[in-house]
Design a protein that fits this description.
Elements lengths: L6 E5 L4 H12 L3 E6 L2 H11 L3 E5 L5 H15 L4 E4 L14 H26 L5 E6 L12 H24 L3 E8 L5 H12 L4 H10 L10 H11 L10 E4 L6
The structure holds nicotinamide-adenine-dinucleotide (NAD).
The site of nicotinamide-adenine-dinucleotide has 29 residues, from helix 1 and helix 6.
Length: 255
């Protein structure tokens, strides 16, 4: 029960890494608020976890929606200690294929959404003890891929944003640690989107998944529970002297 007493708001909590994080946090003793635009999935997940979980509608690109989600978490569980920014999208496009509209949409969700999550989290947590923010970056925020222009730009931004917010909180003497993770390819709906795109271009499902697996020295994709485990560690008091860190969860890819 490493997270006993914590109350966490998890953006993108209805699916993939966010959903695995919600389940693990609840199993470790936390109360969780699943913030997502997918109401049916978010509500079903909250029901399956039970009393310790609630769903709240949250579009991470909206300042007002973040204010409402934080207020809902405090209303339901009495306080907020932890924010996990996991909402994100990944749409491939080289610099020649990507449009300004597509580029901006990716920044709006992945980077603006994480900025707003951090901003509301700092405001809500700064009077408390043991606050933690965990942002979900990507190996593609550190090691670029030619077909991921917008995604790389957004996740590079998430890395530096995380570190700037961590320094601010430390310098101000707030008891808020701010860290992130850098997942490699994790088998979620996001990867399934690439499988569908590959199949549409004539590749088999096995070929697409093997391509992802081969990018990791451990020769496999990650499971959602694996980044969730790293997020739980960074959110827990076991990481009490860790702030500004971006922890790879990548089967060795960045080594
Ligand atoms: N799966 C991977 O291989 C991988 C690798 C590196 C990083 N990541 C990152 O992990 C995070 C989670 O991705 P995932 O793999 O779990 O994907 P996923 O598609 O399973 O989950 C993403 C969730 O974000 C939600 N979301 C999208 N736009 C939103 C918005 N505007 N407001 C609120 N919620 C929104 C979706 O509804 C969904 O529930 C993302 O930030 C992603 O970039 C994923």
């Amino acid at each position: 029960m490493r997270l006993s007493g914590k109350v966490a708001l998890i953006s993108g909590g209805a699916s993939g890494i966010g959903a695995a994080t919600a389940r693990l946090f609840a199993a470790e003793g936390a109360s969780v608020v699943i913030g997502d635009i997918q109401a049916a999935k978010g509500e079903a997940l909250a029901r399956s976890i039970g009393e310790a979980a609630a769903y709240v509608a949250l579009d991470v690109t909206s300042d007002a929606a973040w204010a409402d989600a934080v207020a809902a978490a405090v209303r339901r569980f009495g306080r907020l200690t932890t924010v996990v920014n996991s909402a994100g999208i990944s749409v491939p496009g080289s610099i020649e294929d990507e449009t300004l509209e597509g580029f901006r949409r990716t920044q709006a969700i992945n980077l603006d959404g994480t900025f707003l999550g951090c901003k509301h989290a700092v405001a809500a947590l700064k009077g408390g003890r043991g606050g933690a923010i965990v942002n979900v970056g990507s190996t593609l925020g550190q090691k670029a891929g030619a077909i991921f222009t917008a995604y790389c730009a957004s996740k590079g931004g998430v890395k530096m944003l995380t570190q700037a917010v961590a320094l601010h909180c430390a310098e101000q003497g707030y008891d808020i640690r701010v860290n992130g993770i850098l997942p490699g390819a994790i088998h979620t709906e996001m990867v399934e989107g690439y499988v569908a795109a590959g199949e549409a271009q004539g590749a088999s499902r096995e070929q697409v998944l093997a391509g992802f697996a081969s990018a990791h020295p451990m020769k496999r994709l990650g499971r959602p529970e694996e980044p969730a485990g790293a997020i739980a560690f960074l959110a827990s008091d076991a990481a009490s002297f860790t702030t500004g860190a971006m922890l790879p969860v990548d089967g060795g890819m960045l080594s």
